[in-house]
Amino acid sequence: MRNATDALACLQENGYRITTTRQAVNDVLYRLKGPFTIEELSDALPGIGRATAFRTVRLFQDLGIICRVNLEDGSARYQLASTGEHHHHFICTECGVVTEFIDAHIDQAVNRQAQGANFELNAHTIDLYGIGSCCSKKCSTNS
User: How far apart are CA 66 and CA 79, in angstroms?
Assistant: First the structure.
């Protein structure tokens, strides 16, 4: 989502009311920098319970407003989705920066594999871990 107004419009377009809780969560999402945990979101929302924050995050995730990022250590972070489209992630293991990418060829290959296995695919995620361009530049200048 490009801005907070786009996210609220997405809620309305999908038949959801813009409650004060959803508005508050939306406002905080656009103030947070980088991937966040549910705990970090809850801390930024005094007066809104953790369970309510989690349910709102789940709704925003289902609508493509935010996406879940599974880190290499097994923990989960969330971040604003740059597009509402299905996408994958490059995750820098040095600094934690998450970059989205879209690749129709990968998605087609996944779908072909599922069909070939007679597997009804509901969803998939691809998270690629490595050293991002910013950190690899730092490494080469330190050598």
Answer: 5
Specify whether the CB–CB gap between 78 and 61 falls below 8 A: yes
The pairing of strands 88-92 and 127-130 is: parallel
Angle at 112 between CA 118 and CA 115, to 5 degrees: 15
pTM of the entire predicted model: 0.72
Domain 85-143 of CATH type 1.10.357.10: no
For residue range 13-51, list pLDDT tens digits in order: 999 999 999 999 999 988 887 789 999 999 999 989 989
Among all chains, which residue has been given the structure tokens 């107004």? 5
Report the distance separating Cα 62 and Cα 80, nearest Å.
12
Which tokens belong to 133?
A: 């361009």
CA distance 57 to 66: 8
Q: Which two tokens stand for residue 61?
A: 């995730």
Instruction: Find out if CATH 1.10.10.10 is the number for domain 1-82.
Output: yes
